[in-house]
Amino acid sequence: MKEEFDPDLEEAAEEGQQDELFEHFGFVVDKGQTMLRIDKYLVDRLEKTSRNRIQMAADAGNILVNGKSVKSSYKIKPLDRVSIVLPYPPRRLEILPENIPLTIPYEDDDLIIIDKAAGMVVHPGHGNYTGTLVNALTWHLKDLPLFQEGDLRAGLVHRIDKNTSGLLVIAKNERSHARLAKQFFDHTIRRVYTALVWGNLPEEEGTIMGNIGRSTRDRLKMAVFQGDEQGKHAVTHYKVLQRLGYVNLVECSLETGRTHQIRVHMEWIGHPLFNDERYGGDRILKGTTFSKYKQFVENCFALMPRHGLHARSLGFTHPMTGKEMYFESSLPADMAAVVAKWEGYVQGRDPED
């Protein structure tokens, strides 16, 4: 039996790269499946979808196998996890209200501030259809018209990654949404992050400039492109807060807001975030060869099983009153514990390390 699939597959391929991808179709290949080109395989699995359309989607990076984009010539193997992702949510996606506890430092009639825990996805998308911040907001704000229509991005004017903790502002009505969105567009929102990065930065502070776009090698990653022909303009300012031997605690201020901006910019200058699995920070990049040190780093990874990034502060003009608003969030327990371990390491290490 063939599966139904969104008929706009080829349109998405023509639109090119987008910042957000949503899974429209996914399955695990049967154990007994013989090796076969994926375009031939999908023609037999998808309703009303030509081989040419599938090939176009593969060329655009919209067909993933085990999380990585593949060409139409890829030969599927038993137990491969196949996904088809597109730059817009499935039309069938329904936002279900979920009674998920939220940390709310501030709320009024026009906006709400959320201090998001690491591990929570902001809105439903590829592989995450429940348990998101949007599901929680749809429950918490269920009496408001903006959150009664099942809009995937209701109230959202920005977002932070699943494994980034910290502050977000959410609009509670259309007027607030428009005015907050304008502040983000004008880059007048003041956002400061605290990051734990590998290595010792050569300068106390600096600015990273480099266009950011989706990686041509891995559709789940972003990359920095030199020149103006690819990617979007991105600027990150940083300042070293604390030097902790083989890692630095750094303050990052965003001038622009691109997907994975701090993560990809810090990787680009050779200082990926500590324990950032996607950008290579989840292995020992600096330090000694001693087994005791290796165990120390692994213990840190276990203590904070996510990348070291926290959206620490948020400043903006209130969309209705015009009052200047400022919020700050303490370093979460897991990140604070890892920083404390590095402080202890620096104080107690052998000078020869």
Number of helices: 8
Proportion of residues in β-strands:
25-35%
Q: Which percent range fits the helix content?
A: 10-25%
Mean pLDDT: 87
**Within the CATH hierarchy, at the fold level, what is the topology of the largest domain?**
Pseudouridine synthase
Radius of gyration: 22 Å
CATH class of the largest domain: Alpha Beta
Task: Sketch the major β-sheet.
Answer: 9 strands, mixed
Structural class: alpha+beta
The span between the termini is 63 Å
Quaternary status = single chain
- Order of SSEs: HEEHHEEEEEEHEHEEEEEEHHEEH
Structure description:
This protein has 353 residues and is of the alpha+beta class. The chain has three domains: 78 residues, RNA-binding S4 domain (Structural Genomics Hypothetical 15.5 Kd Protein In mrcA-pckA Intergenic Region, Chain A, Roll); 80 residues, 2-Layer Sandwich (Pseudouridine synthase), CATH 3.30.2350; 159 residues, Pseudouridine synthase. It contains eight helices and 17 strands. The strands form four sheets. Strands 7, 8, 9, 10, 11, 14, 15, 16 and 17 form a nine-stranded mixed beta sheet that branches. Strand 3 and strand 4 form a beta hairpin. Helix 1 runs parallel beside helix 3 and helix 2 crosses helix 3. The longest helix is centred in the C-terminal third of the chain and has 16 residues. It is globular and about 60 Å long.
Topology:
Layout: H1 9-15, E1 22-28, E2 36-37, H2 38-45, H3 51-59, E3 63-65, E4 68-69, E5 75-76, E6 81-86, E7 106-107, E8 111-116, H4 133-140, E9 165-171, H5 174-185, E10 190-198, E11 205-209, E12 211-214, E13 222-225, E14 235-244, E15 247-254, H6 261-268, H7 291-303, E16 309-317, E17 324-328, H8 333-348
Parallel strand pairs: 9-16
Antiparallel strand pairs: 1-6, 2-5, 3-4, 3-6, 7-8, 8-9, 10-15, 10-16, 11-14, 12-13, 14-15, 16-17
